[in-house]
Amino acid sequence: MTKNLRYGIIGCGMMGQEHIRNIALLGDARVVAIAEPDAKMREAAQALVPDAAAYESGEELIEAGKIDALIIATPNNLHTQHLQLAHSQSELPVLLEKPLFTDLADAASVRDKAATGLPVWVAMEYRYMPVIASFIDEVRAMQNRGEKVQMLAIREHRFPFLEKVGNWNRFNAQTGGTLVEKCCHFFDLMRFTLKSDPVRLYATGGMDVNHVSERYEGATPDILDNALVVLDFACGARASLDLCMFAEGSKFQERISAVTESAKVECNVPGPGRFWPVDRLGPAPTAELIVSPRDPSGENLVSVPVDPHLLDAGDHNGSTYYQHVRFAKFVRGNGPIEVSMEDGFKAVRIGQAAQESIRTGQPIDLTEGPFRL
Ligand SMILES: NC(=O)c1ccc[n+]([C@@H]2O[C@H](COP(=O)([O-])OP(=O)(O)OC[C@H]3O[C@@H](n4cnc5c(N)ncnc54)[C@H](O)[C@@H]3O)[C@@H](O)[C@H]2O)c1
Q: H or E element: which one contains 228?
């Protein structure tokens, strides 16, 4: 019989609790320890796993031991510190929420750490959304026929940043900046789809609508709520990211398209079901995969439904569950790390370069200088 895996989680806010709900669905794993300093969040997490040991700090959780794997879901600027803590006593397998790091000054030490081969999987869960996995399969089939993706476009039009414990997500110093904080997902997806690294980018963006009148202890948020990023990849592809965080009226949250010389492949991803106004608009939309060949022309659209239990367990169209299935395989020694620290590093680096491009108004070279990948 397979042994139940024992998980610990440091940081049990919104995402930590999404991890708890999805681990419960695995069937052969359970959360046995949680660390959360905020009493309300600790109580909410403990209600999901009443038998787990509850601590106020990660140090206590690591000290207590008796876990097979650790999940780190603390605010972005604490990730490197908690990763250090995770490996202070043993080489524990870690699922680390993105972004891998936030501070430009940490880049060299994080790059060195990435080279040591520590058992760290960075949680780039967009790769595991069923419709995005199907999109990647279609692209891979075209690449295997020798075709090249020439253009890749990712558009995310969604709701504003939610409220967080201590409002950590309102300031670049804690998040790394919007293009690091959330868009590292999309830069990872670009690298993964194209199997190539970007060589140059240009970005423009600002905080123009949301958060403008918010004040936290007298300080105004400094995060972006809209941006455009254009990237040239080493393989010759052109890619773009179009982010707008005051567009929650959209039917789909992400629209992604890849075009080769023979066809266009697209996918449409709905946002979190809990925000969809069922009373006014009826059932929430289902994810779509669309293939449009040039010849014969015409769209071929298929729906990619997700098990409602998985949709209910989180905000990410089932991806957290599928990511956990793969991560558990790795913890059991039956599979590789699929999203490495190097992947996590590069996704952050591209986001940092895009933030710098907005700050300076200049394109950024990613092959040499401070933002070399
Ligand atoms: N992969 C994804 O799609 C995805 C989605 C959302 C959030 N995230 C990431 O998950 C992380 C958490 O985000 P969230 O939305 O859950 O934020 P959150 O504020 O809801 O949760 C963070 C929790 O960490 C706790 N915390 C703060 N300091 C701590 C410490 N020293 N030790 C232990 N816990 C501490 C806070 O009290 C809070 O409950 C962030 O890094 C975020 O970028 C990833």
A: strand 226-233
Decide: 135 and 265 in contact? Cβ < 8 Å.
yes
The domains of the chain are located at: 5-125, 127-307+341-365
Please state the rounded mean pLDDT for residues 182-197.
Answer: 98
| Homologous superfamily in CATH for domain 5-125 | NAD(P)-binding Rossmann-like Domain (3.40.50.720)
User: Kind of pairing, strands 53-55 and 29-35?
Assistant: parallel
Domain spanning 127-307+341-365: which superfamily?
Dihydrodipicolinate Reductase; domain 2 (3.30.360.10)
Q: Give percent of the chain above pLDDT 90.
A: 98
Work out the average pLDDT over 5-23.
98
Contact residues for 201 (Cβ-Cβ < 8 A; gap 6+): 229, 230, 231, 232, 350, 353, 354, 357, 363, 364, 366
Which tens digit of pLDDT belongs to each residue from 154-189? Answer: 999 999 999 999 999 999 999 999 999 999 999 999
Q: Whose CA is nearest to atom 25 of ligand 1?
A: 11
99 neighbors 126 (Cβ within 8 angstroms): no
Ligand 1 mean position, distance from CA 11 (Å): 6
Closest C-alpha to ligand 1, atom 5: 15
Pick from 157, 158, 133: which is nearest to 287 by CA?
A: 133
The full DSSP string for 352-365 is HHHHHHHHHSS-EE
Q: Which atom of ligand 1 is nearest to the CA of 182?
A: 43
Percent of the chain with pLDDT over 70: 99
| Type of residue at 319 | S
pLDDT 10s digits, 26-72: 999 999 999 999 999 999 999 999 999 999 999 999 999 999 999 99
Q: How far is the CA of 182 from the centre of ligand 1 (A)?
A: 13
Mapping DSSP to helix (H, G, I), strand (E, B) and coil, where does residue 132 land? helix
Check if the beta carbon of residue 193 is closer than 8 Å to that of residue 241. no
* Residue 330 CB-density burial (10 A; 0-12 exposed, 13-18 middle, 19+ buried): middle
Inter-axis angle of helices 341-360 and 107-114, to 10 degrees? Answer: 160
* Ligand 1 midpoint to CA 150 (Å): 36
